[in-house]
Amino acid sequence: MKILILNAGSSSQKSCLYDMTSPIPNLAPQPLWEGKINWTENQNQAEITVKTATGAKLQETIAGDSRQVQFTHLLSTLTNGETKVIDDLAAIDVVGHRVVHGGQDYQEAVIITEKVKQAIAHLCNLAPAHNPAALSGIEAIENSLGNIPQIAVFDTGFHRTLPEAAAIYPIPYNLVEAGIRRYGFHGISHQYCAKRAAEILGQDLQSLRIITCHLGNGCSLAAIKNGCSIDTTMGFTPLDGLMMGSRSGSIDPGILIYLLQKYNYSSQKLDNVLNKSSGLKGISGVSSDLRAVIAAKDQGNQRAQLAWDIYVHRLRAGIGTMLASLQGLDVLVFTAGVGENSPAIRQAACEAWGFLGLKIDSAKNHQKPIDIDIATSDSTVRVLVIETQEDWAIAQQCWKLLQQ
């Protein structure tokens, strides 16, 4: 079974094609084909990169066309040129989509119908950087591949097990009844990494207390007990929780009231400030990319140093909150772009928990570890760096749903 996966973001569209066989392997196989569109600040220009399992590569820039045309061009590389891996797009059996927000109604993977599309559209204002992009991807497949089955896998789904004490905000209950609650995000990644951690350690997932740290441009933590999410840092929207690349994370809600009253901020301006102009970018004035912030910090930039300090402080505080929910800790996992690639962040995060007996091996931490334990042999907590495989996790869910 050939499964095409679309993982849409506000500035990029990642795609890959898997050829699934039964039984499904636990470890993610290399996709037959991987394609990515990066949209530059000039929205009419796109950078397209493609690679295949056989080593073929393609890199080009397309200007002047719509995103729909650009995506259609990306799909054409599946069947044409050096990156050809199938004879016809009709060979694709199903398309799986990562959808960030599923609200209260969609907690499991579902086959996409007009009703599901309307629900995703209705939730766009709660995940403005992601749900619209997913919807565009769904419609692009409809235009390119017709009535092929499409499946939505929701980032909020894994957090459906949150206890009400963790999920419900202390607001008037009629607002809770209207659906304002903590949903949590990055669930596909958190679920995959918890399962993978148990496999790496050769232990039963049900027996482990795990904190997963998904640290990328967006950041969130999850407390996982008995294989279930019992607490997480993102909330009603992906804006809550940790300091992120350009998102503020949690701030005093009184700040919003102040900005509305004192400076007459519009909702659109608030959205731009909190989602696009805050976080590492807003504090450092350098970049939303932690690598650039670290480079500036190392050159003596004081605002970059402050951005680093706040990021680390809030990461440690978030881990502490998850620790309290779990009432102990067996495994700490780092994943996503920063979590997988920044030994300095892993070191800084772990230093705070030395009093618990958590120790990491500095040499292992700096050896670009992937899917290994970087804790010392005498550490009371195992510390893993895991390459998140969201696309593979989505493909697995698509397979299971179609088998049903």
UniProtKB/TrEMBL annotation:
Keywords: ATP-binding, Cytoplasm, Kinase, Magnesium, Metal-binding, Nucleotide-binding, Transferase. Mg(2+). Can also accept Mn(2+). It catalyses: acetate + ATP = acetyl phosphate + ADP. The record marks 186, 247 as: Transition state stabilizer. Its cofactor is Mg(2+); Mn(2+). Its EC number is 2.7.2.1. GO terms for biological process: acetate metabolic process; acetyl-CoA biosynthetic process. GO terms for cellular component: cytoplasm. ATP binds at residues 14, 214-218, 289-291, 337-341. It is found in: Cytoplasm. PROSITE patterns: ACETATE_KINASE_1 (PS01075), ACETATE_KINASE_2 (PS01076). It is an enzyme of class 2 (transferase). Its main location: cytoplasm. Mg(2+) binds at residues 7, 390. Pathway: Metabolic intermediate biosynthesis; acetyl-CoA biosynthesis; acetyl-CoA from acetate: step 1/2. The active site is at residue 155. GO terms for molecular function: acetate kinase activity; ATP binding; magnesium ion binding. It comes from the Bacteria. Substrate binds at residue 98. Belongs to the acetokinase family. Homodimer. NCBIfam families: ackA. Catalyzes the formation of acetyl phosphate from acetate and ATP. Can also catalyze the reverse reaction. PANTHER family: ACETATE KINASE (PTHR21060), ACETATE KINASE-RELATED (PTHR21060:SF15). This is Acetate kinase. The lineage of its organism: Bacteria, Bacillati, Cyanobacteriota, Cyanophyceae, Nostocales.
